[in-house]
Amino acid sequence: MALLVKNVCSSVRPWLPVAQTWDLNARRWVRALRRSPLKVVFPSGEVVERKRSPRKQPREAASEAHAQGQRPKQPLQMSPSPSPSTWEEAGLRYDKAFPGDRRLSSVMTIVKSRSFRDKQGKILLEGRRLIADALKAGAVPKVFFFSRLEYIKELPVDKLKGVSLIKVKFEDIKDWSDLVAPQGIIGIFAKPDHVKMTYPETQLQHFLPLFLICDNLRDPGNLGTILRSAAGAGCSKVLLTKGCVDAWEPKVLRAGMGAHFQVPIINNLEWETVPNYLPPDTRVHVADNCGLYAQAQMSTKASDYGWVCDRRFLKFHKFQEEDIETGDSKDWLPEIEVQSYDLDWTEAPAAVVIGGETHGVSLESLQLAESTGGKRLLIPVVPGVDSLNSAMAASILLFEGKRQLRLRVEHLNRDRTYH
């Protein structure tokens, strides 16, 4: 048995050095494959020499490493972590509406009604430019419906935190859109508060002591155009009394072209509260929208201006009362001086009342103008021509007021220079 074990051991020992020899050869072959040959000899006898890539000598490498080790280490400069500026960095997510999803239709059904806007305090904005202007002014978004992700990525990332983002088909937006060419994005915002809004700095620098009061304006297009003129003229504030169309109606927003976020707008006011939103010494003037009647008052003869008693005069009969005993009518219309619109009327903070084309100015506006020493501003028109459009009359008066205020400032600066 001992002899058998001895024979087995003796037969195993020779294999160990063979295994080690094969392992060494394998390593050599691997190193050979990694080397770049100096010469390549082809079977035809052609010899191609290759230059060895320059390598640093061991001593040079050691000395360079030693020199680098002695250099003072520069402190590692950590760049401040920037705030998330991209969609991915902010970790924003969006939902994708699948067939049968009624979130868009349910919102669009109710958000276009004035009662919903008043009760829920939410408005509808459509279009990339209008939405961008609203976000810049500090309006608070609630929900965005969009057809392409690029439309959302164009908006400021910091304004989208906590906002519901829902991707829908463009056809769905087109079905609910009021635009001729829908832009593929609709936003639901909280109704802006003029006190919390951040208006453009350039707009604030050009604000004038000029105010606009809208009285019984019912046409959305006219109101939107008037708001654009108010922003362009540099009005400090726009007041809308009860009876006017809602300033945040989609049609008014479209016609305003972003003016809602450039000038403070105060909606749905009672006439008793209007003076609270004006400076103490403000004179309230009334835009005359029955020019021929006013021209007749300025002249001893109505025929001088071609004025006749027609339907435009009938609206003033509501300010008359009839004596039951004598049958005589007593005129109790507030007496307000009439003057041409291009004469000076901006000697104090001035407010202009613009009435609607159908009902004209209200009795309350005339009483306010009388109590503040205001006037009826007449824009002369050619006899036979009906009264001007409300938006056109407002634009003429506001920019005339701006011209007068600018001239007043120039005169004051000139007087200070001479003295």
Keywords:
alpha/beta, disordered N terminus, 60s Ribosomal Protein L30, Chain: A, seven-stranded parallel beta sheet, Alpha/beta knot, 419 residues
Helix content: 25-40%
Note the total helix count.
Answer: 16
> What multimeric state do the chains show?
single chain
Distance between the termini: 135 Å
- How can the largest sheet be summarized? 7 strands, parallel
Which homologous superfamily in CATH is the superfamily of the largest domain?
SPOUT methyltransferase, trefoil knot domain
Strand order in the largest sheet:
10-9-8-15-11-16-14
Average predicted confidence as pLDDT: 77
Q: What is the CA-atom radius of gyration, in angstroms?
A: 41 Å
General form: elongated
CATH fold category name of the largest domain: Alpha/beta knot
Architecture overview:
This protein has two domains: 91-190, 2-Layer Sandwich (60s Ribosomal Protein L30, Chain: A), CATH 3.30.1330.30; 201-414, Alpha/beta knot (3-Layer(aba) Sandwich), CATH 3.40.1280. It has a seven-stranded parallel sheet with strand order 10-9-8-15-11-16-14, sandwiched between helices. The protein has 419 residues and is α/β, with parallel strands linked by helices. A hairpin with a 6-residue loop joins strand 12 (320-322) and strand 13. The chain has helices spanning 2-12, 15-34, 58-70, 87-90, 103-111, 114-120, 128-136, 149-153, 170-176, 201-205, 220-233, 250-256, 291-298, 311-314, 363-371, 390-418; strands spanning 39-41, 47-49, 95-96, 122-126, 141-146, 164-167, 185-190, 208-215, 235-241, 265-269, 283-287, 320-322, 329-331, 338-340, 350-355, 376-378. The N and C termini lie far apart (135 Å).
